Automatic annotation (TrEMBL):
<dbReference type="InterPro" id="IPR017853">
    <property type="entry name" value="GH"/>
</dbReference>
<dbReference type="Pfam" id="PF01301">
    <property type="entry name" value="Glyco_hydro_35"/>
</dbReference>
<feature type="domain" description="GLMA-like second">
    <location>
        <begin position="465"/>
        <end position="539"/>
    </location>
</feature>
<dbReference type="InterPro" id="IPR031330">
    <property type="entry name" value="Gly_Hdrlase_35_cat"/>
</dbReference>
<dbReference type="InterPro" id="IPR001944">
    <property type="entry name" value="Glycoside_Hdrlase_35"/>
</dbReference>
<dbReference type="Pfam" id="PF22369">
    <property type="entry name" value="GLMA_2nd"/>
</dbReference>
<comment type="similarity">
    <text>Belongs to the glycosyl hydrolase 35 family.</text>
</comment>
<protein>
    <submittedName>
        <fullName>Beta-galactosidase</fullName>
    </submittedName>
</protein>
<dbReference type="InterPro" id="IPR029062">
    <property type="entry name" value="Class_I_gatase-like"/>
</dbReference>
<dbReference type="GO" id="GO:0005975">
    <property type="term" value="P:carbohydrate metabolic process"/>
</dbReference>
<feature type="domain" description="Glycoside hydrolase 35 catalytic">
    <location>
        <begin position="11"/>
        <end position="115"/>
    </location>
</feature>
<dbReference type="GO" id="GO:0004553">
    <property type="term" value="F:hydrolase activity, hydrolyzing O-glycosyl compounds"/>
</dbReference>
<dbReference type="InterPro" id="IPR054746">
    <property type="entry name" value="GLMA-like_second"/>
</dbReference>
Length: 661
């Protein structure tokens, strides 16, 4: 099985597929059970691709010793043997060598000897106040190393190069790599003031200014300042000019891109490389948007995670989740399928994770991950002293190797997308409207507080809420890199208002409007360009926002019931996919408009359904009918034109490869 990643889609042996994976933290388990647990993932869950971190602190706990990948110092370090088992069992692996991995490990999986407290030569990561940015292990706080500090950079590149030289060449199971974790140090969603104000971080910032402006004199001409040397320019504060604030946001985006490229290059492999961004928090949405710019990553593919709440019950979590899935094409690389005690008791039932995995795919993701597929219970305190086993507490395969009630739910989704994933990806989502991200505004709002002046978060969240209230899906477009072709399919484009907008972006939007598109501006219509020089190319074509609707739109797929619904249609065949996501609190069936007439779906609250429609009929379906956490059990069913298919009593409806309804 050879995996490529093209435009965010996994291409397996030349065929685009929905990438369905399961994580197995081998380092937390007894090597004697590795083979049994891998068989359970393959046979019980129907999953062929394993993801696993390679914790640096596990494989190289001492600075003076070489990394152990063969188990010479401890059997659980024999990752070479683990990968050989995967290969023997027909499984492929996405290996995740960090260097930082989180995974509820001490110091996020970094070895203790790279901590600045342990080695004065290691430069600490600093925040805007000059204080070290720390990782919290319970009550203990330890400073994190600056990624571009000379000593730590040498250590990380050596670790990653050793992975590439000693582990990957003979590991036929490894099909792709994931670099870093959720930003750099699970920090993708933190404020722009959280880092990097270290000397190496500020050197990077000034180097970026030099590349953008050429000379201090040119910088001064644009910003209205009087610096004589790059070294005089400090990071901006809340009262700085708007272009300086935008520069810091842009520098953060290029900082993240540089870290990813340096670390990926250090491995020295030609395997595809992905990353997994944590979704934004609500208060730091502008910070996240300013920092997360996959357009800059150059061959490294976007992916994301979900660790921020139960989306069927929390509208804020749902918005953040959808935005993360829409930001760029790529797979969900960590969906919570096993942690109820650590995160939320709703995850004790598979309906919660079923709903969220389907929402990711509906919103734009190209795959989902079961984190973790297997519960484990065999690690020592040097790896993780804060969490008791099993890890996690309610995985689809328990710590004894037995399938739990979640296993059939995972298996149904895996089988559905194994059968139909290629066709699903070929289908085009029904999206008539889009929001245009203008990311300089995100940087400005992140540092100024965003109460007044331009920003991206407020208008984007307002747009999301309007579209959800109308029952409509939408697109998300990054304006500085967009092409006219990307905008062609949308009837309207909502953009944040403010004092300035790149001249090229104004030309793009004016051309879109001339071709019949509607440009809605949420805020003041810009009349300046990126150098704050007069430019009002958009002004003649800008349309004020309409009043928010009080009821669902007539285009909404949902006619009755509390649910979100998404439709994808094939461009060349009479084939459609309908995803229905039932909100917590819904009682009764969900009525839906489809290309074949009205469809009724009965599913558990907090659950959902995926249906394949073809040739005027409903074909394969997976409907979740039970949510034990909410004490809800219904006879899952679908109905079209009076013809019904349902479960034989309270429970799920799963039909894959069966007769059409």
């Amino acid at each position: 099985m050879a995996i490529e990643v093209r435009d965010g889609v996994a291409v397996v042996d030349g065929v685009p597929r929905v990438l369905v994976t399961a994580d197995y933290p081998y380092y937390r388990d007894d090597p004697a059970v590795w083979a049994d647990r891998l068989r359970a993932v393959r046979d019980e869950l129907g999953i062929e691709v394993i993801t696993c971190y390679l914790p640096w602190r596990h494989h190289q706990p001492e600075a003076g010793t070489a990394p152990d990948f063969t188990g010479r110092t401890h059997p659980a370090r024999n990752v070479t043997g683990f990968l050989a088992l995967c290969h023997e069992l027909g499984l492929r692996v996405i290996a995740k060598p960090g260097p930082f991995v989180h995974a509820e490990l001490s110091y996020g999986g970094l070895p203790d000897w790279v901590c600045p407290d342990a080695d004065p030569s290691i430069e600490p990561l600093l925040d805007a106040a000059g204080a070290p940015a720390c990782w919290h292990d319970g009550a203990e706080k330890r400073p994190l190393p600056a990624p571009f500090g000379t000593a730590f950079l040498a250590m990380t590149t050596r670790w990653l190069a050793t992975v590439g030289e000693q582990m990957l060449p003979g590991a036929g199971a490894v099909a792709a790599l994931q670099i870093a974790n959720e930003g750099v140090y699970t920090s993708g969603a933190l404020p722009l003031t959280a880092y990097d104000y270290s000397p190496s971080g500020l050197a990077f910032y000034r180097d970026r200014l030099r590349s953008w402006y050429g000379t201090p004199e040119e910088y001064d001409a644009v910003h209205g300042t009087a610096y004589g040397d790059w070294a005089e320019i400090e990071p901006p504060g809340p009262s700085s000019g708007p272009l300086a604030l935008a520069d810091w946001g842009r520098a953060h985006a290029e900082y993240l891109a540089r870290v990813y490229r340096v670390w990926a290059r250090a491995v020295g492999s030609d395997l595809p490389v992905l990353v997994n961004l944590n979704p934004p928090t609500m208060p730091e949405l502008d910070d996240w948007l300013a920092r997360v710019r996959p357009e800059l990553w150059g061959g490294i593919s976007y992916g994301f995670t979900n660790w921020m709440g139960v989306v069927s019950a929390d509208a804020g979590a749902q918005a953040r989740y959808v935005i993360a899935a829409k930001r760029a094409p790529g797979p969900n690389l960590e969906e919570n399928w096993g942690f109820a005690e650590l995160y939320d008791p709703a995850y004790v039932d598979g309906a919660t994770s079923f709903h969220q995995s389907l929402l990711a795919l509906a919103a734009g993701a190209t795959g989902f991950n079961v984190y973790t597929g297997v519960a484990t219970s065999g690690w020592g305190p040097e790896l993780d002293a804060a969490h008791a086993g099993p890890y996690p507490d309610c995985a689809p395969v328990d710590a004894g190797g037995a399938a739990t009630g979640k296993a059939p739910v995972v298996r149904a989704l895996a089988d559905f997308f194994a059968a139909h994933g290629t066709e699903f990806l070929e289908c085009v989502p029904r999206r008539s409207d889009a929001f245009g991200l203008y990311l300089p505004y995100a940087g400005i709002a992140a540092l100024s507080g965003g109460a007044e002046g331009p920003g991206c978060a407020r208008p984007l969240l307002a747009f999301h809420e309007r579209m959800r209230a109308r029952g409509l899906d939408y697109g998300l477009v990054e304006l500085e890199s967009a092409t006219p072709e990307e905008l062609t399919g949308y009837r309207s484009l909502t953009v944040p208002g403010g004092p300035f907008l790149h001249r090229r972006v104004q030309e793009l939007l004016a051309g879109y409007a001339k071709a019949g598109g509607v440009v809605l501006v949420d805020g003041p219509v810009p009349e300046l360009d990126e150098r704050l020089e007069p430019c009002a190319l958009l002004a003649p074509f800008a349309t004020p926002l309409p009043a928010a609707p009080s009821a669902p739109d007539q285009e909404s797929l949902v006619m009755y019931g509390e649910a979100d619904a998404f439709l994808r249609s094939h461009p060349g065949r009479d084939v459609h996919y309908l995803i229905v996501l039932v909100q917590t609190g819904n009682e009764g069936p969900i009525g839906l408009r489809t290309p074949y007439g009205n469809v009724e779906v009965v599913a558990a609250e907090g659950g959902g359904a995926v249906l394949r429609l073809a040739g005027g009929e409903i074909g394969d379906v997976v409907v979740r009918g039970v949510n034990a956490y909410l004490d809800c059990a219904v006879e899952a069913s679908v109905r079209l034109d009076g013809v019904r298919a349902g479960a034989g009593g309270p429970g799920d409806l799963v039909r894959i490869g069966g007769s059409a309804l």
